Amino acid sequence: MKDENSNGQGKRKASEEPDSPSTAKRAKHSQSTEPPETKNPPAPVPSAPAPASAPARIPFPEKPAVVEERNGEIEFRVVNNDNERESLIILTGLKCIFQKQLPKMPKDYIARLVYDRTHLSIAIVKKPLEVVGGITYRPFKGRQFAEIVFCAISSDQQVKGYGAHLMSHLKDYVKATSDVMHFLTYADNYAIGYFKKQGFTKEITLPRSVWMGYIKDYEGGTIMQCSMLPRIRYLEMGRMLLKQKECVHAKIRAYSRSHIVHQPPKQWRGSGGVTPIDPLSIDAIRASGWSPDMDELARQPRHGPNYNQLLHLLNDLQNHQSAWPFLVPVNKDDVADYYDVIKEPMDLSTMETKLEMDQYPTPEDFIRDAKLIFNNCRKYNNESTPYAKSANKLEKFMWQQIKAIPEWSHLEP
């Protein structure tokens, strides 16, 4: 089925919204052509707090991707398989990038989805039709979400801010041309950090009935969600946050002297070098209420000695393909008699909370709760059910991970 967004040939600036899908098909989204405001050099530090009405202006640091787009060196094109020559050239370029950057993904599978007419792609294109990166996604009409299937930038172009700028373009385009307000994607371990920076989270708030069975489950991937805000213009989000930061700093300066830079102590001004001094001999430190005990408290470790290894193990369990029945507590509205049968329920999200609160002083305490999850599952569900099979697979995986840690080699199932 051909997507309704496939016929228009217009281009627009990033500062404009497409009026309709037909005007947004091959959209060149350039940033505003106005040069950034010229900033005056900061005035000498005053001896009293500066008035809130005259905050110091912070220059907006533009990424190379934004500058290149404004200069016409790159453009962002939305394409699908509409049999047009340029569309097929761009899709082929995307296919080659995805196949190179995602070596674990079957090449024929990548090609099939990129050329699939139910999918759309947004590509970063240099003249003449050189594709340097892009995203392939599938919108689900009437369900208000889209699945990001592939996302990659050429390896020699990954330091220019292309990835973040590409995602901002995608969000603005999708909001303006469809009812989609949420993205779902399966991210591998290398991509989780990127998606987190783009507003994605591992906490899935969309009802499972909306997306379950519609998107493909990738083994070893972590499902992530991004919900867009209707009033946010994502291409202008950096400037908006900068303005908010300036306003907050202005409010702080109206009530605080924290922005004032003081001269170093007189003992350090001579040629004798730096000598130890009593911190409380400095008026500003003494006025802040600081005491040496605060430093001692700050140096204390936040968590116990096993925290990092247990956190790593818990993350591995949560990301395993068989963990889906155990990620959150069982909903009593879905399984009415569950809590009549299971008197001591446990799940992976509860274990995560307990771990953060240092309630697992030893690995044995952690394993005890994990085994509780598996035993509860086998107690409530028949051994032939997918739930019991998932419990067996996840428990086997847990012990494989434990045996790989030399300090825990003495632990037994």
UniProtKB/TrEMBL annotation:
Subcellular location, record wording: Nucleus
TM segment ranges: none
Region span, Disordered: 1-64
Domain N-acetyltransferase: from-to ranges: 74-229
Domain Bromo: 318-388
Keyword Transcription: yes
Signal sequence coordinates: none
GO cellular component: histone acetyltransferase complex; nucleus
E.C. numbers: 2.3.1.48
UniProtKB keywords: Activator, Acyltransferase, Bromodomain, Chromatin regulator, Nucleus, Transcription, Transcription regulation, Transferase
GO BP field: positive regulation of transcription by RNA polymerase II
Family matches, as SMART domains: BROMO
Positions with biased composition (Pro residues): 38-49
Listed PROSITE patterns: BROMODOMAIN_1 (PS00633), BROMODOMAIN_2 (PS50014), GNAT (PS51186)
Gene Ontology terms, MF aspect: histone H3 acetyltransferase activity
PANTHER family in the record: GH11602P (PTHR45750), HISTONE ACETYLTRANSFERASE (PTHR45750:SF3)
Similarity remark: Belongs to the acetyltransferase family. GCN5 subfamily.
Record-given protein name: histone acetyltransferase
Organism whose genome encodes this protein: Magnaporthiopsis poae (strain ATCC 64411 / 73-15)
